């Protein structure tokens, strides 16, 4: 018969629960949950929030989502609703300010290796990944991401852009573009150039406003999302 020592039990418990929570806290959470109030979610937010790399004021996120906390930075006035999945194990996800997500958004900051001959893909370890397998995902200020959109590694969503529901975004989206579909394409811009300039005057100080010549240059380009190597400059965070 196996003799289970105290050390064995301690080690097993530590493995089963990498983030040990005190019984008192569990009791508080259970009481809040059973009372039918949603305050237990607020408590989880308070507990989890410090695990993000950085965050600004009025940052609300669904604590029931999936996050690689330490690789995610978020600005102020951001709402990540409806169980999002934000995963970047070897890159970063940088979200600006005044950003909102619909339910079920996924952001993926990397890819598994799929190029190795003679091995199952599941056998390839994290340490065997190459730098080009993981790229930062950036979402600039004032962006709305529609429900169940998927944003893939290396993408930058430009300031003021809208990502439509269900879009699969594989390339960067120009500022104030509305990107829809799979693969996502910018179907239109929210406003014409003059209106963008007028809009920018209100929320942004002069040194952070987009320049007319830049906006015109991007928009007269090939259209649709910009290639990764030709990103417009961002002012996120
Ligand atoms: C993209 C969106 C913002 C609409 O933007 P819009 O500029 O007003 O676009 P329109 O509705 O005029 O549609 C323009 C074209 O894009 C298409 N389209 C709109 N949304 C689309 C989407 N999500 N996926 C694919 N195509 C879409 C329209 O069918 C239309 O196509 P057509 O020109 O061939 O007729 C909206 O459709 C959307 O997806 N909103 C997200 C809603 C959401 O999830 N909110 C979160 C709530 S908490």
Q: What's the layout of helices and strands?
A:
Elements: H1 6-16, H2 23-34, H3 39-48, E1 59-61, E2 66-67, E3 72-74, E4 78-80, E5 85-87, E6 93-95, E7 99-101, E8 106-108, E9 137-139, E10 144-145, E11 150-151, E12 156-157, E13 162-163, E14 168-169, E15 177-180, E16 185-189, H4 193-201, H5 212-219
The structure holds coenzyme A.
Coenzyme A binds at residues 102, 146-147, 162, 164-166, 178, 180-181, 187-188.
Protein model, in words:
It is a single chain. The chain folds into two domains: 1-37, no CATH class; 53-224 and 232-236, UDP N-Acetylglucosamine Acyltransferase, domain 1, CATH 2.160.10.10. The protein is built from five helices and 16 strands. It has helices spanning 6-16, 23-34, 39-48, 193-201, 212-219, and strands at 59-61, 66-67, 72-74, 78-80, 85-87, 93-95, 99-101, 106-108, 137-139, 144-145, 150-151, 156-157, 162-163, 168-169, 177-180, 185-189. It has a seven-stranded mixed β-sheet, with no helix packed on it. The N and C termini lie far apart (59 Å). Residues 102, 146-147, 162, 164-166, 178, 180-181, 187-188 line the site of coenzyme A (COA).
**Strand portion:** 15-25%
* CATH class group of the largest domain: Mainly Beta
In sequence order, what are the helices and strands, one letter per element?
Answer: HHHEEEEEEEEEEEEEEEEHH
Helix share, percent: 10-25%
Order of neighbouring strands in the sheet with most strands = 1-4-7-10-13-15-16
Mean pLDDT: 86
Distance between the termini: 59 Å
Number of separate domains: 2
**Annotated CATH architecture of the largest domain:** 3 Solenoid
Which small-molecule species are bound to the chains here? Answer: coenzyme A
């Amino acid at each position: 018969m196996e003799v289970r020592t105290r050390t064995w039990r301690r080690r097993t418990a530590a493995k089963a629960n990498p983030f040990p929570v005190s019984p008192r806290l569990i009791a508080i959470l259970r009481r809040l949950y059973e009372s039918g109030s949603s305050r237990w979610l607020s408590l989880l937010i308070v507990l989890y929030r410090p695990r993000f790399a950085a965050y600004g004021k009025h940052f609300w996120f669904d604590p029931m989502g999936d996050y690689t906390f330490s690789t995610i930075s978020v600005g102020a006035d951001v709402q990540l609703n409806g169980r999002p999945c934000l995963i970047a194990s070897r890159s970063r996800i940088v979200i600006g300010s005044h950003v909102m997500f619909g339910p079920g958004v996924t952001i993926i900051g990397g890819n598994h290796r799929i190029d190795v001959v003679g091995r199952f893909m599941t056998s390839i370890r994290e340490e065997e990944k190459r730098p080009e397998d993981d790229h930062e995902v950036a979402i600039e200020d004032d962006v709305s991401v529609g429900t169940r959109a998927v944003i893939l590694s290396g993408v930058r969503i430009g300031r003021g852009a809208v990502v439509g529901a269900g879009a699969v975004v594989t390339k960067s989206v120009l500022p104030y573009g509305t990107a829809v579909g799979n693969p996502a394409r910018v179907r239109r811009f929210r406003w014409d150039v003059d209106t963008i300039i007028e809009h920018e005057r209100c929320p942004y100080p002069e040194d952070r406003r987009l320049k007319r010549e830049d906006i015109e240059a991007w928009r007269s380009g090939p259209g649709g999302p910009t290639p990764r190597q030709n990103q417009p400059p961002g002012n996120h965070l």
